[in-house]
Design brief:
- It is a single chain.
- By secondary structure, the protein is an alpha+beta fold.
- It folds into three domains: 85 residues, 2-Layer Sandwich (Double Stranded RNA Binding Domain), CATH 3.30.160.390; 96 residues, DNA polymerase, domain 1 (Orthogonal Bundle); 187 residues, hpI Integrase, Chain A (Orthogonal Bundle).
- The protein contains 18 helices and seven strands.
- Strand 1 and strand 2 form a beta hairpin.
- The radius of gyration is 36 Å and the shape is elongated.
């Protein structure tokens, strides 16, 4: 059977004009740019400087259009032809390839700007002014180490709960249950920020808690009311550095954090009015904190004035007085007194809170003294001098309570 093939003039043109890699490589620049056609709208523009770029010409809604497919060398002949066929397929569906490309670029930029990492860094940037430098670095470091490598590149609105759960479970497998819990909460804050800024629809991080192992609550060791007198007597008889002895006593009587005490400067104290104002730069919540001082605390500070009054810092370092004493100094005293594992410097805060609550003092006063800023008790407002009169009376009661306990213990 004889089959007749009907070849159109366009087909003959296409057959004869198909390009080859050899032809493209041999094409030399001329005085003016010129094109080499591959057919069906695809051509290669050879510029006067020798650059060779792919062009695709087409008509859309009766108007001539042109888009670039890239530079030869970066985009091969085969790749250029594939792009041409994709563009022709779009045209067959009534889609303008140029508009589709613009939409893809916008989507790519949107994807990058709204990736989990981009949103997290934006959230962190807005929050860090309210944190100490150390805490800000810690939060970002956790995300950079444990979250960004896995889902940081993903558009935040496309991340599924199972994706984030899998990442958190990686942390759990290291045995870091507390870390996994903290990072889940941080991811929740990032997702909540994304929701309120219109880049995500749902904060699913809190729901993941049910699928994670709950970390054990490891409170800092602290002394009970009955254990206090023996410890205070042992501390009174401590024969080591007076600087660390007085630091330990002050930590117990004020309820401040260890770092807040260690880095204290003399300019922060008003001994005449028995007040200590810690500047916001040194506070965890980036809010200045007013600490009333009991008469016992003032006496200790007067003794300290004799030792370190000529320096800027109340507790200067042994090797460099411009730097504060070591963060291990107070815990070393506690250990030498035989209370290792039973008490830590931070445990004094828990001890104060427990005793004051047990003796009926207002929770709002206690939380303010500890700089916790309890939103329920003080209704989300903050004034560093809030409840100052009540706190002065409370902290004096607490210091006297410890002194009375000690005297009773000695007399037994």
């Amino acid at each position: 059977m004889c089959i007749k093939l009907r070849i159109t003039q366009f087909d003959l043109f296409s057959i004869h004009m198909l390009l080859s890699d050899i032809q493209i490589k041999r094409a030399k620049p001329q005085d003016k740019p010129y094109t080499l056609n591959d057919g069906a709208g695809l051509s290669l523009l050879v510029d006067v400087n020798g650059a060779k770029g792919w062009r695709f010409r087409y008509r859309f809604v009766g108007k001539p259009k042109m888009i670039s497919f890239g530079v030869y060398g970066e985009v091969s002949l085969a790749e250029a032809r594939r792009k041409r066929e994709e563009a022709r397929a779009m045209l067959a569906k009534g889609i303008n390839p140029s508009d589709a490309r613009k939409a893809d670029k916008i989507a790519l930029r949107f994807s990058h700007e709204n990736s989990f990492e981009a949103v997290a860094r934006e959230w962190h940037s807005g929050k860090k002014s309210t944190w100490t430098d150390g805490y800000a670095k810690e939060v970002l470091g956790c995300l950079e180490r444990d979250i960004f490598p896995y889902v940081g590149h993903r558009p935040i609105e496309l991340i599924e709960p199972l994706e984030l759960l899998a990442v958190l479970q990686k942390i759990e497998k290291r045995g870091a249950l507390e870390q996994a819990s903290k990072i889940r909460r941080r991811c929740g804050e990032v997702l909540r920020f994304a929701v309120v800024t219109g880049r995500a629809k749902y904060n699913f991080a809190p729901d993941l808690a049910i699928a994670l192992n709950k970390p054990k609550q490891n409170h800092f060791p602290f002394l009970t009311e009955k254990e206090i007198p023996a410890f205070v007597e042992a501390l009174e008889g401590y024969q080591g550095s007076l600087l660390t002895k007085y630091a330990t006593q002050l930590l117990m009587l004020t309820g401040v954090r260890t770092v807040e005490l260690r880095e204290a400067s003399w300019c922060e104290f008003d001994l005449d009015n028995a007040l200590w104002e810690i500047p916001k730069e040194r506070m965890k919540k980036r809010r200045s904190h007013l600490v009333p001082l009991s008469s016992q605390a003032v006496e200790i500070l007067k003794k300290l004035k004799v030792i370190s009054g000529k320096y800027q810092l109340v507790f200067p370092g042994r090797n460099d007085v411009r730097k504060p004493m070591s963060d291990a100094s107070i815990n070393k005293v506690i250990k030498m007194l035989g209370y290792h594992g039973r008490l830590t410097g931070h445990g004094f805060r828990h001890m104060m809170s427990t005793i004051l609550h047990e003796h009926g003092f207002e929770s709002a006063w206690i939380e303010m003294q500890l700089a916790h800023v309890d939103k329920n008790s003080i209704r989300g407002t903050y004034n560093h001098a809030q409840y100052l009169k009540q706190r002065k009376e409370m902290i004096q009661w607490y210091s006297s309570f410890i002194s009375i306990k000690l005297q009773s213990f000695i007399q037994q």
